[in-house]
Amino acid sequence: MEIILDKIKYIYGNKINAINDVSLNMSENIIYGIIGKTGSGKTTLVELIDKLIVPVSGKIVIDNCTKNNFRKNIGLVFQFPEEQFFETTVEKEICFALNNFNISNKNKRIKDSLAMLGMDESYLKKNPFNLSNGEKRMIAIASILVYNPKTIILDEPTIGLDNKNKRIILNLLRRLNIRYNKKIIIISHDIDMLYQLVDNIIVMKDGSVFIEGEKDIVFNNIQLLESIDISVPNIVKFENIVLNNKKIKLGSYDDVKDLIKAVYRNV
């Protein structure tokens, strides 16, 4: 599913340009990371893609999506999960989309979506509003996974999660992309997490795309990113320190364990 944004502009009621002349071509089966300072337009951008809001100018084209099947093909997990909850039990909450889309085999889908997140049936009768922040986030993700959309958008998906559940989310998203060809779009301030997972990075600044491209190319523009107060992943910092001080080019590694092995090979 290809997503094309052509000169998109969005203005809030107070006439502030939240999104200004943004053009992007988001290819199929790619994991995208969107970063930027607070107020740079990240959340507004994904809300435009999800058609929660409508641009004042420009157009958004989503391949193979019609008015009738759009909601079934794109799932958005909000930054604050309780904002997307409707029901009084986890079971009803996860089942909401299945009922809305007239999808059968509900019980199996609900249990499978929880299992993918390392959760069991004991959560089904709990009130989602009474769960911990981390549990709310996992239930919100389950409520999207249950109807199997082609594109999954997540706004700060790892906030409030411990390291174990962060790994579950990362491994799940990677598996959904590789095995099931899902397009994944993630907003996050967790730069190190994004570097492990994504293929491409979009950097937002003042409602515009500041720089975008393959993650290694974007994150190696260290001075450019630091000029807008964006940090780079610790792995990239270390690789550049070794290159500058020891003149050893380690290459690019997503995982710190692989980086350590490379260091030992070059000592």
Into which percentage range does the β-strand content fall? 15-25%
The main sheet orders its strands as 5-6-7-3-8-9
Q: Given the C-alpha coordinates, what overall shape results?
A: globular
Overall strand count: 9
Mean pLDDT: 89
Uncertain ranges: none
Helix count equals 11
Question: What does this entry look like structurally?
Answer:
Helices cover 40% and strands 21% of the residues. The strands form two sheets. The protein has a six-stranded mixed beta sheet, sandwiched between helices. Strands 2-1-4 form a three-stranded antiparallel beta sheet, with helices on one face. Helix 3 (90-100) runs parallel beside helix 5 (133-145) and helix 4 packs across helix 5 (133-145). The relative contact order is 0.15. With 267 residues, it is of the alpha/beta class. The radius of gyration is 20 Å and the shape is globular. It has helices spanning 42-49, 70-73, 90-100, 106-116, 133-145, 163-180, 191-197, 215-219, 222-226, 234-246, 256-266; strands at 3-11, 17-26, 31-35, 57-62, 74-77, 151-155, 183-187, 200-205, 208-214.
Task: Present the secondary structure layout.
Blueprint: E1 3-11, E2 17-26, E3 31-35, H1 42-49, E4 57-62, H2 70-73, E5 74-77, H3 90-100, H4 106-116, H5 133-145, E6 151-155, H6 163-180, E7 183-187, H7 191-197, E8 200-205, E9 208-214, H8 215-219, H9 222-226, H10 234-246, H11 256-266
Parallel strand pairs: 3-7, 3-8, 5-6, 6-7
Antiparallel strand pairs: 1-2, 1-4, 8-9
Helix pairs in contact: 3-5, 4-5
